[in-house]
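Help needed: design a sequence for this.
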């Protein structure tokens, strides 16, 4: 036995103990690092306190370096370990070089880089560098934790819904920090929880004005919650885990398959990568399009502000989040001295007449609402080639249904708004009225933006809007609602039953009965919950004479469908009413059927068959 083998043999005997010890140490280190970041950027520390915070950064970094090196020593396959943790290794190497330069020359390595990039603000830039490195290291450890989900004896559906609870609570705590808003005072817990839920569940309902109340830090937190909530925290964690660790577990793949409507388990990893890349690509293109769609009369404070506003609205539109940095979304018409974000005195900010912007945002919303698998198939290079060579070659059945139902509902909504609200658009040209109607039809697909005042709409229009919101987007998308395919399956099931057909068929395909039963279950769950929630809201808001039943019905439907549209009563709702809406937004995002599956117990076998007996219905 060689000396190397003898050393490895001794290390192997201590490996489990060492790894268990390191696991606890790193967990505490991650908590400490997170606390330091929160205190530095979420509160208002003095210069002396900031100095002490970054002194403690050195200790946190030292633990990360120590953990990596010890694990490298104790592992039996060191080359594979380095290969599987290459991104973490790059960060550790950077910190090692940074510390070595400091030990030899008594100068911080990253400080030299900061001084080179920004000589006038080198200290602040250096602190930002350290913070970014710490965030990346913390995310690396969180990604590792996500791969351990398969070892937990809980259902994938339970893990999925708990991930959103965790995201919402984290977002609420972050939004309560005094340094994330212009008042520099903590937002009360209920309003913070409401805002976090609305962002995480990509709804868009707001109890405080996003652009006027929150500063850049707060707006970034909302944007982060919308982005992660739109695709799903499990999706993001698993995506990064595939790069930072040795892979993902079966349970994670099952959760992603269910959330993104994957066809089979074998295609989940490919679908995961495609989803993230498609999301980033469409959001990037959308941001560029929005950047060039702002009206010439809208003068931003700086180029950077114009870029940020474009990014914010691009991500918010694709994720169907509905958050806007303007007081009345895309229906804003005001003077600039009424807001803290535009400093040009007396400038008239008129977003409602930027029809090019409205059209661009509408297209981004549609792309976010049709489903990731549908987008992937439409824009697949191979599929495009096959379509050119064989135009008659159809899409998959789910893609075909999603596109057809989406097109029909968009047309229905556009015609309804154009006809029913024509009296409010008499001063517009036909093209402007058509774009306005189309935009409002699109935004009911759970997008949350508005270019008209919903509080002044006719009751007939609002009923159509509630119907469209209730149906919502397509499966595997960033939107909510019971989904387009659900209502379609119910419709053809009813038709098949009326016409006496034994099986439900579409496009030379037979749709299984369990799919039909699932669609009916989703519809009934959603309908019953909304009726109960409207009843509860009517009780909690009974003492408020300014809120009508129609407004409560609209608000509840919007919350459950994660549409984010409102008749202007959100901030006036009582605390108990807000709690009802918070639960509605949460259930609308995770899905009532998913929650039922998570809470259900394993059913007993019913393979036996009792004699049939008819029951009168109808």
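Sure. Designed sequence:
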């Amino acid at each position: 036995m060689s000396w190397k083998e003898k050393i490895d043999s001794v290390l192997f005997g201590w490996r489990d103990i060492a790894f268990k010890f390191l696991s606890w140490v790193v967990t505490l280190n991650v908590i400490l690092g997170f606390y330091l970041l929160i205190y530095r950027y979420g509160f208002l520390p003095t210069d002396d306190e900031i100095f002490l915070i970054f002194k403690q950064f050195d200790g946190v970094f030292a633990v990360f370096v120590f953990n990596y090196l010890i694990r490298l020593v104790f592992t039996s396959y060191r080359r594979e370990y380095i290969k599987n943790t290459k991104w973490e290794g790059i960060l550790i190497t950077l910190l090692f070089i940074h510390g070595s330069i400091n030990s030899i020359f008594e100068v911080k390595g990253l400080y030299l880089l900061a001084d080179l990039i920004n000589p006038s603000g080198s200290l602040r830039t250096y602190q930002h560098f350290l913070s970014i490195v710490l965030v990346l290291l913390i995310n690396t450890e969180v990604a590792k934790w996500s791969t351990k989900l398969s070892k937990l004896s809980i259902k994938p559906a339970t893990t999925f819904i708990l991930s959103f609870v965790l995201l919402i609570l984290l977002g609420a705590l972050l939004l309560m920090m005094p340094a994330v808003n212009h008042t520099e005072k903590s937002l009360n817990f209920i309003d913070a929880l409401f805002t976090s839920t609305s962002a995480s569940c990509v709804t868009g309902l707001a109890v405080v004005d996003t652009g006027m109340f929150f500063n850049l830090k707060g707006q970034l937190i909302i944007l982060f919650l919308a982005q992660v909530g739109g695709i799903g925290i499990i999706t993001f964690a698993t995506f990064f885990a595939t790069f930072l660790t040795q892979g993902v577990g079966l349970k994670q793949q099952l959760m992603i398959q269910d959330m993104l409507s994957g066809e089979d388990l074998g295609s989940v990893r490919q679908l995961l990568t495609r989803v993230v890349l498609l999301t980033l690509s469409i959001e990037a293109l959308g941001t560029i399009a929005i950047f060039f769609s702002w009206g010439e009369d809208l003068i931003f404070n700086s180029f950077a502000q114009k870029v940020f506003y474009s990014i914010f609205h691009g991500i918010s539109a694709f994720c169907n989040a509905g958050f806007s940095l303007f007081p009345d979304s895309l229906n804003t018409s005001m003077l600039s001295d009424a807001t803290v974000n535009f400093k040009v005195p007396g400038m008239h900010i008129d977003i409602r007449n930027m029809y090019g912007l409205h059209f661009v945002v509408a297209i981004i919303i549609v792309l976010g609402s049709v489903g990731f698998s549908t987008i992937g198939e439409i824009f697949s290079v191979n599929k495009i080639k096959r379509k050119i060579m064989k135009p008659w070659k159809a899409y998959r059945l789910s893609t075909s249904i999603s596109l057809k139902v989406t097109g029909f509902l968009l047309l229905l909504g556009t015609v309804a708004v154009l006809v029913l609200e024509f009296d409010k658009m008499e001063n517009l040209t036909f093209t402007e009225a058509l774009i306005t109607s189309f935009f409002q039809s699109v935004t009911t697909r759970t997008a949350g933006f508005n270019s008209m005042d919903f509080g002044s709409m006719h009751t007939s229009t609002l009923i159509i809007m509630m119907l469209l919101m209730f149906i919502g987007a397509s499966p595997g998308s960033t939107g909510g609602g019971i989904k387009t395919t659900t209502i379609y399956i119910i419709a053809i099931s009813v038709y098949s039953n009326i016409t006496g057909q034994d099986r439900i068929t579409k496009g030379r395909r037979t749709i299984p009965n369990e799919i039909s039963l699932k669609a009916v279950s989703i519809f009934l769950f959603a309908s019953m919950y909304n009726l109960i929630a409207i009843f509860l809201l009517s009780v909690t808001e009974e003492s408020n004479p300014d809120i009508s039943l129609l407004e409560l019905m609209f608000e509840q439907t919007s919350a459950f469908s994660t549409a984010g549209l409102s008749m202007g009563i959100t901030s006036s709702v009582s605390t108990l009413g807000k709690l009802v809406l918070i639960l509605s937004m949460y259930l609308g995002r995770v899905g009532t059927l998913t929650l039922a599956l998570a809470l259900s117990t394993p059913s007993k076998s019913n393979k036996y068959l009792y004699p049939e007996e008819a029951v009168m219905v109808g």
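Residues 404-599 form one domain.
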